[in-house]
Fold this protein.
Amino acid sequence: MFTGPDVSYHAKACPVMRKIIFAVLLLLTCCHLPAQDIDKIINPAAVESIEKVLSADNMRGRASFTPDIERAADFIETQFKAAGLQTWNGSNSYRQPFSLIRAKTLSVNGSLDGNLLPAGSIVAVSSEQHLAITEKSGYEKVFIKGGAPFMQEAFKYITQDRKSYLVLVDTSFGKYFARLSGMGGQQFKSGRSVVFVLTTANPEHYSIGMEQEITASKLANVVGILPGKTKKNEYVIFSGHYDHLGVGRPDAKGDSIFNGANDDASGTTAVLMLAKYFGKLRGNERTLVFATFTAEEIGEYGSQYFSRQFDPAAVMAMFNIEMIGTESKWGVNSAFITGYERTDMGKILEKNLVGSGFTFYPDPYPEQQLFYRSDNASLARQGVPAHTISTSKMDSEKYYHTQGDEIGTLDMKNMARIIQSIALSSRTIIAGGDTPSRVDATQMR
Ligand SMILES: [Zn+2]
């Protein structure tokens, strides 16, 4: 029963009409497998059997860089194999490996037009062990002037393109400057460097040297695909993150394991269930990509790496699934879609669910910026209709990021219903009949 006040997004039909429409939709869904059989594959018992494994204490909270997350990845691989998925790009494994670099500054020195720079006024984001640069090194000289949005500008130079920069930061940002060193702590290996200098000068000549200790750590997404029958080069992605926070301090009950049953073993479970369902159905015209991401909790690194493997124009839609284990603020049989108004994807999903009794709502917590806070963001920034589906009550989710986020707090029946609804709602997109409109990337921050 919906208790939310706003049902204006959702078409209303009389009960008889609704039944007829739903019956027709069910017939249309039919391929090798009657759609009614969705209950045989996606049901509360099947959901629980997967959710239980991922959120068990022996997974120890699936923290990135630990053997625990490797065990979770092994399990996901066996599920992908059983579902009959192929690997991405002919790889011999479902694991999609990559490295993150950690750089520790050992020594640094520099001068601008012959004037030595004081300690603490140089920070580099770089994966180089030895850095020695002058005005002849091909770095573009740019400025962060007083009054500019400091961290936003700095982030832009670090992440957004392929050049190396010398960034001259106005001394009015002195007390924030040290924060930049945190940004170099964890990064993708890169041939480009960004060097920040705290100064009011605009030097003609400069010289900066740095020694760093570099360590690389391995991570892996787990990715499987079902090639499309006729539109192989058009992708529809189903995703969730399988990492969580690991083991921390014990709470009042002595529990130190952050199980992450809802965050995001529930989304990972959904991806595995959908892989199983579509693996049986074998009706997809577009290629389906099932992705479980690592390192979301420490900065969405897994999805950032994943999104670089695609030409964004070839990705027709992304269903990212994050925290669907509890009831939404409207109760059972409903979920919300982040960034709802940015594309017409939500409308397409609703159309495919007319009469089903399930409702997708626009994100009711816009002030929380959830559209930017999950693994859909990397592809959305490139214009892909990439949304996160969730039920999390962000203003009152009791166990969010606590040791209490355990399977006993989740509703398996509702979860099964949500996963079924995601499957059915994606039907016309998978079949190539509907293509959601694109996100306006110029409106993304
Ligand atoms: Zn989280």
Notes: The mean pLDDT is 90. The first strand starts at residue 86 and ends at 87. The CA atoms of residues 99 and 218 lie 4 Å apart. Residues 263, 297, 401 surround zinc ion (CB under 6 Å).
